[in-house]
Amino acid sequence: MPMKYYIVTYGCQMNVHESEKIAAICEKMGYTLADKREDADLIVFNTCAIREGAEERVFGNVGALKKMKKQKPSHIIAVCGCSTQKESTAQYIYRTFPFVDIVIGTFNIPNFEHYINAVKSGRQLEIFKEGDIDETVPYKRTSGENAWVNIMQGCNNFCTYCIVPYVRGREKSRQEENILNEIRAVVAEGKYKKITLLGQNVNSYGKDLTPAVPFSKLLKDICAIEGDFKIWFMTSHPKDLTDDVIEVIANEDKILKDIHLPAQSGNNRILNLMNRRYTREKYLSIIDKIREKMPNARITSDFIVGFPTETEEEFQDTMSLVDKVKFDSIFAFMYSPREGTVASKMDGQVPEEVKNRRVNELLALEKKIQQQEGKR
């Protein structure tokens, strides 16, 4: 009887896509997908480091497998992803859950087969360090008519609240031809109607390549591929959403007029503390350009409330920004300190009850706007 695997994925679309890579590696090794965790010989937790709550859920679910591992020691338990890219978290898992067999970070996922074989043969695990993007590992695509295509990894922005640059590393873009070849192959299969380009900051794609490849060029070249498909991308940083990118989105029929543009705050002092590198005025000018070129574009955003030292007046600047732009949808989060980030060490942490009130006020405003504007 073939061995079975089961993957539990936390976090963003990038993690979902990397779980597709893990699934392909497992099936290459002869594993088949289990219907539920209890039936699996190999259990993988692909983790997220963005918020503390996500890590706590991982720890709880890993701890629940202690009894199963004791009853059947041949079970292999692996924890990987963003959380375990942090050395402190990896060491915590080793200390707290000694029955876990494999603890690796995001950079080591392409070598997952090596780690499974090492566990099976009783060899000591050799942890590989960060390297170039691996173009050899296939994906078992699991998102219906949507195909995720990773165009870059890492981030150079170092927003003061964000752990991503520390766990994903600096920006590394894939060679354009490799991306185009992957998309040509996806389109040739005929079952994917939507292709979503992924990266921690997709519109800074290509700056690290020699010669540099503008994101607008990549979008044009993808649109030139024959076939019936639509393109979407996430996530954009306002400082990198340039006029030429807006122009390409507006002019290319294959690109969805659906732009997710995280603002995070509507106050300039808070934006500066966040190291976002744009102002409220700059953000609104970008929105104006989008609306000028694409009056019917769907625009969504992210906001963080209760950032350290945020005053009530500064929070109201965020409220007024949302009221002015009238987004089609927003995601609002209470600021959560992440160990290792600049903001976690800042004075003036906002009380939980204040953050909770503010996030509810912001979401109530969004609901009111949607009712008034007839947005969905």
Give the topology.
Layout: E1 4-9, H1 13-28, E2 32-33, E3 42-47, H2 52-63, H3 66-71, E4 76-81, H4 82-85, H5 87-96, E5 102-103, H6 112-121, E6 146-150, E7 152-153, H7 164-168, E8 172-173, H8 176-189, E9 194-198, H9 215-223, E10 230-234, H10 243-251, E11 258-260, H11 268-273, H12 280-293, E12 298-305, H13 312-325, E13 329-334, H14 352-373
Comma- or semicolon-separated keywords:
alpha/beta, Rossmann fold, Transcription Regulator spoIIAA, single chain, 5-stranded parallel sheet, 376 residues, 3-stranded parallel sheet
What does the model show?
The strands form four sheets. The chain has a five-stranded parallel β-sheet with strand order 2-1-3-4-5, with helices on both faces. Strands 6-9-10 form a three-stranded parallel β-sheet, sandwiched between helices. A three-stranded parallel β-sheet has the order 11-12-13, covered by helices on one side. The termini are far apart. Strand 12, helix 13 and strand 13 (about 330-335) form a beta-alpha-beta unit. The chain is built from 14 helices and 13 strands. The model has no long low-confidence stretch (mean pLDDT about 90). Helix 10 packs parallel to helix 12 (about 280-295). The chain has helices at about 15-30, 50-65, 65-70, 80-85, 85-95, 110-120, 165-170, 175-190, 215-225, 245-250, 270-275, 280-295, 310-325, 350-375; strands spanning about 5-10, 30-35, 40-45, 75-80, 100-105, 145-150, 150-155, 170-175, 195-200, 230-235, 260, 300-305, 330-335. The protein has three domains: about 5-120, Methylthiotransferase, N-terminal domain (Rossmann fold, 3-Layer(aba) Sandwich); about 145-255, 2-Layer Sandwich (Transcription Regulator spoIIAA), CATH 3.30.750; about 260-375, Transcription Regulator spoIIAA (2-Layer Sandwich). The protein is of the alpha/beta class and about 375 residues long.
